Amino acid sequence: MKKKKRNQEPYHSTQKFTDFPMAETSSSASGSSSPITNIPQDQLFSILFLLPVQSILNFAMTCKKLKSLAYSDSLWEYVCKRDWGHPSVDALKGSNHLQQLPWKKLYQQVYQLDSVFCHRLLADSPDGDEIVPSPRASHSLNLVSGCLVLFGGGCKGGRHLDDTWIAQMGNNFRKTIKWQKMHSGIPSGRFGHSCVALGDDFLVLFGGINDNGFRQNDTWIGQVTVHQRLGITLSWRLLDIGSIAPPPRGAHAGCSIDNKTMLIHGGIGPSGTRLGDTWILNLSEDLCFGTWTEVVVRPCPPSRSGHTVTHVGGTQTVLFGGRGLGYEVLHDVWIFETCEGNWRWVQVVFDLHNVPRGSSLPRVGHSANLIIGHRLLVYGGEDMYRNRKDDFWVLDIPRNLDANRLMWRRVESKGEKPNGRSFHGACVDNSGRFLYVYGGMVDGLVQSSDSSGMRFDGEIYLVELVL
Q1: Statement to judge: residues 71 and 176 lie in one domain
Q2: What is the CATH number of the domain that holds 148?
Q3: Do β-strands 316-324 and 304-305 pair in parallel, antiparallel, or remain unpaired?
Q4: How many structural domains comprise the chain?
Q5: Both 368 and 387 in a single domain?
Q6: Is this structure's pTM higher than 0.85?
Q7: For residue range 24-71, what is the model confidence (pLDDT) as tens digits?
Q8: Which residues, listed in sequence order, are joined to residue 279 by a DSSP beta bridge?
Q9: Residue 126 sits in which domain range?
């Protein structure tokens, strides 16, 4: 495969703020005019908008006039939109607490995130009769059309579930949730499947395992619609994909790359062996047809299951963790890049000096979601001894892979913290500031009928980034 030419981005959103104090206190005392100060302010503004954050801060140190422009709130609001996207900025504007902060300060706080606050959401049952999903694990949880969509999973006794539940969340923070069971009857029951959101209204579901151990490779399209009078509707249909499909599997990883593309990797195949193949699904404009294509490149991630793949914007998708061929639990990080029809996997090293002694990064059955600031928020999972984790980690992703360096940082959790869990479902809202976590396997009392000491959980939590 020919070496592809990567686009050089004009900024780097994972900018550290180690130089902020210097930029805050330094300015030129010279009152002399320079050619750059004669450039019209609107043109200087346009130039600054294209610069990396550190260059903007350096620019501010030249003289008082330019410092005033480089620190202007309007410029930093544009920088936030550039680096985080409009949905995140619009959501932050709606926060009574955060809208009082200058955008430059808010930008700094996002990249210095050191804690999350957890809320346990209670069932909204005005009649006193709780209608809630049963406890489960290895299910899917997605946010589409402003609604949480919960499908399938496994439960006590190794049985699969075939139910779909929806809860309309809205834009305002609430500590209650009202589930509604949907009676669609399809897709068939399964666990260990992948289900990803496409755009604002659609879902794509692939594969999974039923309670007979049968691995599947069917592809489904779901659409969630919120009607003012009819309420919420969900429709599923089997996608026409032609004659080519990935081999059947479960416990694989999947994500959407854009509004018409899905990626899957690995999993457990029909013979029980772990897979290491990568497939991409390209959908037609009307979402009526799809074409699966296998990505064959070297190097590539080793075979595994129970891992995550997460699209982080642009051309990058991040793979992390899982269980390997020898049942070892992994902590390697790979980035999948796609550009102009060319694909490649790149393994990226990371610094360990920020990993506290006694902490363990290897995990399987965790969640990894893109949050505000072009970073992954990794939660939970279990180690090779099936010890379940309750920790949160932030992984900074470089936009320029030539840097070949990642930074892990553990984040403190406060509030009503979830128990350690694995194979739960998790998704973020459109702002990238709130994470929903539902279900999973948690530690429980050992009973005579179950010597594993585990149980399935049915609680849902809202995890808020503390800014």
Answers
A1: no
A2: 2.120.10.80
A3: antiparallel
A4: 2
A5: yes
A6: yes
A7: 333 344 445 567 777 888 888 888 888 989 899 988 888 887 888 899
A8: 264, 294
A9: 115-465
